[in-house]
Amino acid sequence: MQNLIVILGTNASGKSELGIRLANHLGGEIVSADSRQVYRGLDLGSGKITPAQAGTVKHHLIDVADLSDYFSLAQYQRAAYSAIDSISGSGRRPLLVGGTGLYISAIVAGYELVEVPPNDPLRTELEGLPLPQLVARLEKADPAAASRIDKGNRRRLIRAIEIAAGGGTHTTAHQSSPRYNCLQLGLTWPREILEQRIEQRLRDRLANGMIEEVAGLRARGVPDLRLEKLGLEYRYITRFLRGELATLDDLRRELGIAIRQFAKGQITWFKRDRRILWLDPFGDYFQEACDRVREWEAG
Prior knowledge:
Elements: E1 2-9, H1 15-26, E2 28-33, H2 51-54, E3 59-60, H3 73-89, E4 93-98, H4 101-110, H5 120-127, H6 131-141, H7 143-148, H8 154-165, E5 180-187, H9 191-207, H10 210-219, H11 224-228, H12 232-241, H13 248-271, E6 277-278, H14 285-298
Parallel strand pairs: 1-4, 1-5, 2-3, 2-4, 5-6
Helix pairs in contact: 3-4, 5-8, 6-8, 9-13, 10-12, 12-13
């Protein structure tokens, strides 16, 4: 199997910057592993790289879908496989970089996925159910998926039930055919420091126009229901624009809490994979990453 370097981590960990530095150092290109950055128009809210960063190294699977489209995990996997193989075929180094654990696992583990299209009537029914009922529905429909999924994540619960109803099964460990020999390098920080980084990044994005980005999407006709499903930043800013959060301070506080909780979920997901080598955030983690790559390639 061909080699694939994976740089992963939590929100505000610095993984994107590390990925860019490592790609430049190794003569590589980056395949994004972010479930929102595939969509055009989601820039500040998704933490998309800046034009300046994009000019330093080639990125793949950013801005490849319209918000009116549904971009499934299976579509992502196919596109990522194609990008990785194309990069390798051109003599460059592919690096998979991102924080969407399911996307990363789909590539690293080689999930055998069944393409199940959205079922709007079923989704409408499920949207009205409380979390305990969603969990019970999934446990009955696909016990393997229920044993692995984040039971506090409505979107993932609904999608897993939808997949089961469509005749497929959710991604489970025994349905895997790995295609790559992966080196997974993780980056995060102790809780107190990570929370400070999350807070500062949130303030910076709000100051740089994240609210205006969401307002612009609404003005162009993107429905609020769609925005609510595009992640925490779009969900809470949409609620702010509707007046459900009274002040900017309310938005910053509530969104900050939600992002910190999400980061905890990311850590929980990644910590399940004991193959991930965690870099020391207080040291020269770029040099450490280079050393890890060199040792790995030397066998």
